[in-house]
Each structure stands twice: as structure tokens, then as C-alpha cells.
Specification:
This protein is 49% helix and 11% strand. It contains 17 helices and 12 strands. A hairpin with a 4-residue loop joins strand 1 and strand 2. The chain is globular and about 50 Å long.
Length: 404
Amino acid sequence: MASSSRLNVNTDDIDVSTVTIPTKTEEEQKFDAHNAALCQERNLPLEKVKNARDLASPQNSPIKPGRVYRIGRVSDATEKDLEILFGEIGIKTLVDLRSPTELKDDPTLEREEVFAGFTDMVFYENGNKVKELGPEEKRMQKIRKRDRVKKAVSGAKKNTKDVVVGFVDNFFGGDEFDGEEKEEECIDCMEASKLLEESSRRKNRKERHFVSIMNELKYVRGTLSKLRKRDIASTILKAPSTIVSKSARENIKKPFLEEINGGGLPMLNELLLRFGAPGIKYVLDLISDKNRHPIAFYCTAGKDRTGMIAAIILALLGTEDDAIVEDYSLSANVYAEMNDHKAMVGALSQRSLDAKTFLGAPPQVMKDTLANIRNTYGSVEGYLDFIGFDEKSRQRLKYALTDE
């Protein structure tokens, strides 16, 4: 089972022979060719790991080479890839930004050739805690998705809640899955803030940090927050039996999908900034720790979540918007290069989601995202204040990435 992008649509049972790849205009083809030339220049020469480059590579980036890398999913690495990443570069810290559902769908998650010698650490957003996993401990746990949906929509009115739970069961499926960490008290966990304090004790070991900065239900909750008072409430008034009515559930699905397709990646980035705040701060704290360098962070394709964290770092350090936008846009072709690209397009289409919107990386997306940060928070620094990454933390990050 594969999943595409942050919306996590499954590619199982997709007949790729029936899938049509969206056509590109002449202008889009020229854009792709320009990007391909820049990727050839800036990306690491890896065989299977996609979209990998040093954050020192964007034009006029003040970051010193060899300290922090943005990459795609690392678990597919070939022998040559491993030699470059862990031999030549010597990456000491991996940060996996994927959701638990994506981790479940990755058959190479515990691949010995890649992750041998790494100590696994799991960030628990609830309480801002971190657990160090023992050699026999597994990252994934069983949990009912339906139960997490109930919590995600707990702010809805009583009559709305059952409708929304029914809708999400219908849209995402209600079966058991190897889900996100449970929200009860974490046993044998440490405060995330203490990681930096104990940094010197761990400086000689390799670590892999699991930091699910977003998951499917956060996107549901965020999108519902835009719809609740409007479309869902009106649907309930018209059809109080929605929980058992397929046609009524379809009526709810329609405005939900319209909101997602209409908002596109800028809206998903807006939700990521808001709902992913604790995880984003944790990742920035890790990158601020020179004992953890070289460090590489990644999601599935290294495009959206990875691109957002890269953009925040580059903007904070004074990189011009044009260079940040260009670096993001280099991810435009990453899904097209994946083996299951047609299946991803088909799976998105099955969910009535626009593949061209969600699998690309057009420059306007990052332009809109940077503008949204400034309009909403005043500045990148204002956003970092919002997530608790204060001036002292920002100076530590700048020092870690730019000091000789």
C-alpha cells in the first residue's frame, strides 16, 4: 500500500492503464526543464533518494555547507546512496516528518541496511515529550481511526459530531490502523526541552527522530473549522439522518472537497503552520543543536512538509524570497519521478482531488505561503514567537548553521 502526499490517498487496486496524466502547457514544460537543470546542479547525486540537497545550495543562502539537508524518503536508499549520505556526508541525525499512516505504508521503515546503528526517538506532541525506543520497541501502535476522528471534531455541535464522524468514516475509512502515538501519559519519556540540555551526552550516537508534524485528521479538523458553521450545519438541518444516509454524506463531502481543491497547497500549508506548530518547533530545536549535525529532515517526497521547514529556516536567516521560492519549486518533478506516479494520480482522482494541484510545486504556492505568514503573524519571527521558538532559540539556530 502506498500513499500520496499529505492527504494520504491509497494507491491499492488502482488500474494504472485507465489513468491519464494531466497534460502540461508549453510554459509548464519549460519550467520543468529549467528545474531539471537546477536539480542536476544542486541535488545530491543519489539513485533512489529523491529531492536531496544541502540547505546551503539556494542562491545566497548563508548556511554553511554540510550542516543541514532536505531530502525525500531515505529508506529506499541504494548502496551508493548510503555511501554518500552516511559515508561521505556522515549524516548523524535523521528527522522523519511523516504521519503514522505513511509510516505504516512504508515496508522499508525498519530496513537494517539504512537504519542500523540509529537510536529511534519519538516526539509526543501531547505534553511535548520524547521517548527513546529500545532495540525491540516498535514505532507503531494499534488505534481506532474513528476514535481519533471523534476527538478531532469534538468542538462541533452535538448533532454535527455524529455526522462528521460518519462522513470521515465514509471518506477515509473506519478500520483499525497502526496509528499515531496514543495520547495517554508517555511512560519513560523526557521533556523535549531537555534534549538540548543533554546534547553533549548523545553527541557521538546516530539518532532517528519521528516527528509527525501533520496527519490526515489534523487536515480534517482544520478544513472542518472552515466549513462547520456554513455547509455542514445547513446540511444537517436539511437532513438530520446524515449518519445513515449515503446521499447526505456525499452532500457533506462535496463542500469539504471544494474547500480542499479550492484552497490547494497554500491552504494545506496554512493548516500545517497552525496545527503542526509543536512538531515544527521540535525540529528547529534539533537543527539548532550542533551536536546533531549533519542532520537531514524528510517526508515522503521531501516537497511540502520538508519544503515548509526549509523555507522557515531560510527566511529566518535572511534568504531572499525568490531564492526560497526557487528552492521549493525544485521539488516540482519529484512525484513524476516515482515509480507509482500513475497510481498516485489515479488515487487522488478517485477521491475527487486534483492531482495537478497536489503533486506539483508551483512557485506561486510558496509565494502565497510566505505572504500568508507575514499577513497572519507579521513576519517569520512573529510566527516563530507563536510556536514558542523565541529570540534566544533563533540566535542559537543562526549560530549553529552559519558560524565558522
